[in-house]
Specification:
Largest sheet: 7 strands, mixed
Strand content: 15-25%
Radius of gyration: 20 Å
Mean pLDDT: 97
Number of helices: 13
CATH topology of the largest domain: Aspartate Aminotransferase, domain 2
Strand order of the largest sheet: 4-12-11-10-7-5-6
CATH class of the largest domain: Alpha Beta
Number of strands: 17
Number of domains: 2
Low-confidence stretches: none
CATH architecture of the largest domain: 3-Layer(aba) Sandwich
Structural class: alpha/beta
Shape: globular
CATH superfamily of the largest domain: Type I PLP-dependent aspartate aminotransferase-like (Major domain)
């Protein structure tokens, strides 16, 4: 039997898919029939350094020959070095990191940390934000279709309109542990925060004694032209979560929390988190991103100009184009037929989150295909 037949018999059918990718190099991937695609999905903003980046794969191989796993019962090679690097690029004073295996787990850690350090129980989140599919992170994720079947969920969460600071001020009370938000709504189709929104959230959290948690799982690691989206604003969170682009495709997430916010012994843990190989991959990934970070605004502008007639929303290398549900699926299929992979996010929006190493010629190729697919 082939992969599709085996999948239909032995794998839980939680995903809709009909294409098998077997190889990747740079910004391109190949399917099992040998067809080549320019990948503007990048594993959903994960393959930030492109596919099989030489520096990253060499770091993985070097570490795999020395030590694959040892657990957090011992000091782990590369772990402290990565923590130092992440804290420094975050700009969070006196910050400390904690590693996880995914973005959802990173947000779980943020939730636990906020509850135990504040002594409060509830959270406020925003409509159309996405924070994960584990039970606690799902409790803070608005989308009813994926949340409501699993209710009742904890922690208790109040959802308000994204960008509504007046509603936020009313929602945060003496039992609110934290306010969690994305600076750009990724799953909702790349919707940037209104100007001054993060600063307003920061002010309300300070006044009410709640913690500000920035979910940078998708927007972090240089995706928006800074290491983290909040660095484009005048606000710094108490806790920031990250994942996706952190290790070029190896499963990894992390949180960084400001001075005075830290887990004590036995309050949190993980068998696999922050292992030698993923930390080596992350260190190499950060080196590559550091080299391309200054070019992100220029690449973003090239996408903006090339797709201008379709009114794109562009925040670094996160690009959204509203087409409507049916039209979005048709355009994505046409792009794929023409050799470019794009993604349909929420509310009928095309989402582009290509590798950060994408070249000008590759941007032009993507623009040409996407434009033709939309027009036709």
């Amino acid at each position: 039997m082939n992969s599709k037949e085996l999948d239909s018999l032995y794998y839980m059918q939680a995903f809709g898919r009909d294409l098998k990718i077997v190889k990747g190099q740079g910004c391109y991937v190949w399917d099992d029939s040998g067809k080549k695609y320019l990948d503007c999905v990048a594993g959903i903003a994960v393959c930030s350094t492109g596919h099989c980046n030489t520096a990253v794969t060499e770091a993985i191989c070097r570490q795999a020959k020395e030590l694959i796993h040892i657990s957090n019962l011992f000091y782990v090679p590369n772990q402290a070095e990565l923590a130092e690097k992440l804290v420094k690029i975050s700009g969070i004073e006196g910050g400390r990191a904690f590693f996880s295996n995914s973005g959802a787990e990173a947000n779980e850690g943020a939730i636990k940390l906020a509850r135990i350090r504040t002594g409060r129980k509830k959270f406020v989140a925003f409509k159309d934000c996405f924070h994960g599919r584990t039970c606690a992170s799902l409790a803070l994720t608005y989308k009813p279709a994926i949340r409501e079947p699993f209710e009742p969920l904890e922690p208790k969460c109040t959802f308000i309109e994204y960008g509504d600071l007046d509603a936020l001020e009313k929602a945060v009370d003496d039992d609110t542990a934290g306010v969690i938000l994305e600076g750009v709504l990724g799953e909702a189709g790349v919707v940037p925060a209104p100007e001054g929104f993060l600063e307003g959230v920061r002010k309300i959290c300070d006044e009410k004694g709640a913690l500000m948690i920035c979910d940078e799982v998708q927007t972090g690691m240089g995706r928006t032209g800074k290491w983290f989206y909040y660095q484009n604003t005048g606000a710094t969170p108490d806790i920031v979560s990250m994942a996706k682009g952190i290790a070029s495709g190896l499963p990894m997430g992390a949180i960084i929390a400001r001075e005075g916010l830290s887990f004590n012994r036995s309050e949190h843990g993980s068998t696999f988190a922050g292992g030698p190989i993923v930390c080596a991959a992350a260190l190499a990934t950060l080196d590559v991103i550091e080299g391309v970070l200054p070019s992100i605004p220029e690449k973003a502008e090239r996408f903006r100009k090339g797709l201008a007639e379709f009114n794109p929303r562009v925040c670094g290398l996160m690009i959204g184009i509203t087409l409507g549900e049916e039209r979005c699926a048709e355009v994505a299929a046409k792009c794929r037929e023409m050799g470019v992979l794009v993604n349909c996010a929420g509310h009928g929006n095309i989402r582009l989150v290509p590798p950060l190493v994408i070249s000008d010629d590759e941007i032009d190729e993507a623009v040409r295909v996407i434009s033709e697919a939309i027009k036709n």
